[in-house]
Amino acid sequence: MVSKNSDLSQNLLELVAREGMVDISEIKPENRLEDLDIQSADFVMILMALEEEYGVYISVDNELSDVETVQDLLNLAQAKIEEHQKETNA
Amino acid sequence: MNRVVLTGMGAVSACGLGSDALWAAVVDGQSGVRPVNFSNISNQRVGQAAALSSETLEALGEELAHRMRDPVAVYAVRAAREAVAQAGLEADDFGETCGVIIGSGFGGAKTLDDNYMAFGVESKMRLDPMAIPKIMNNASASWVSIEFGATGPLYAPSSACSSGSQAIGLAYQMLKAGAIERCLAGGSEACLVGGVFRVWELLRVMTADKNRPFSKDRNGMTLGEGAGIVVLETLDSAKARGANILCELVGYGTNSDAGDLLRPNPERASACMQAALRDAGLNPSDVGYVNTHGTGTVANDVTEVCALRAVFGEDLGGVRVSSTKPVHGHALGAAGAIECVVAVQALRHQMAPPTINFNEVDPKIGLDPVANSACAFDSRAVMSNSLAFGGINASLIVARFDG
Description:
The structure holds 2 protein chains of 2 kinds.
Chain A: H1 2-20, H2 40-54, H3 62-65, H4 70-89
Helix pairs in contact in A: 1-2, 1-4
Chain B: E1 4-13, E2 16-17, H1 19-28, E3 34-35, E4 48-49, H2 54-59, H3 61-64, H4 71-87, E5 98-103, H5 109-121, H6 131-135, H7 139-148, E6 154-155, H8 163-177, E7 182-189, H9 194-203, E8 226-234, H10 235-240, E9 247-256, H11 266-280, E10 287-291, H12 298-312, E11 320-322, H13 325-328, H14 335-349, E12 351-352, E13 375-376, E14 381-388, E15 392-399
Parallel strand pairs in B: 5-6, 5-7, 10-11, 10-14
Antiparallel strand pairs in B: 1-2, 1-8, 1-9, 3-4, 7-8, 9-15, 12-13, 14-15
Helix pairs in contact in B: 1-14, 4-7, 8-14, 11-12
């Protein structure tokens, strides 16, 4: 389970780097997205990729309003993916 | 300067045909939001919208089969007929002195979607030869002008979610200045088609849950469709024909943010409301109810409440505030016009319709709106706000006509 989750974290980190157009070597979980110059248009690209790869719909709203760091975003994405998998398996 | 009065109104919405059906739904909190399915979206993520009901579509049946009209024009003509009938306008009341100003965000979205699907997916060369005149954004206004023989100035503002409010505001300014004697003004939108819905999904401002403006658990907006049309006249011309005056349009403010295309600016929104109050010669305390833009996105909620506090005072000075979008949806280019109809009805009934689906005050904004059931007020004026993408703000103020 641990390795599965860390695989997911790694995949998500790669996704954020790719869609946010940031070099993955520069991204640390504690980085603030704003300091990485990830803007609202990049968010929309990241969320589109999350939908394509994991089937989750996250609106640019309440759920995202408390997201400040890369880790916050990974946590939200991970929670949404798990929620979605439960729904799909139900 | 002429005084401007409103003598008729019409609406087509998810709540049914007519401004009374719209009012009955908003005041009772009966939502017109229903499941929607688009055949050209695989894995649709958002499953509901305030779409016209099957009964309404059936009632519009033959009109929707018109070979030269996209549904957007059908809705506009239908709402205009209702407004004209209520105003009691006759053939001689149109002509050069009557303008038509009807806005739309997307124009003929269904025609565009159908033809792109046929062209791009099926490689068909036999497309709808009437696609251009059906898609063009001024088609609704043009069909309404043709319907009644209104040969005065015609405009079709396309300013996203402020189109309908700006259409009514522009008509008011032209009447006030004496450029025309009467005008059919409003907005129409028929955007609930697969291609448009999908790109709204991708912008991710729609909630997959219920639309809950100002509520702590809000998570985005819900799209709608329909039309709202009003008949506006100079007071002199309305009196000359012995018209029944429903209310007076006393103030209009509009401005732009010139900032971010998508993120609204509270200072510009409050400046817009203040401009409308100045134009009306009213104090904030004269306004008893504000029908907000109230989309139910966190960006709009925070901005609009901040702007309202700047205008009406930190405690909002007793003004009732609500959003009726969870009932009729966010009808984009028609939104301001549909909500103007709601504002006029609220003024005439002295009743603030509720923000339904509201669960809990959000500490971020601290607003306790008129929630879940309607609330009576005693006031001579009502404001309606539109805050559009592109940074376009518009506020209208209607007031009791006291002679």
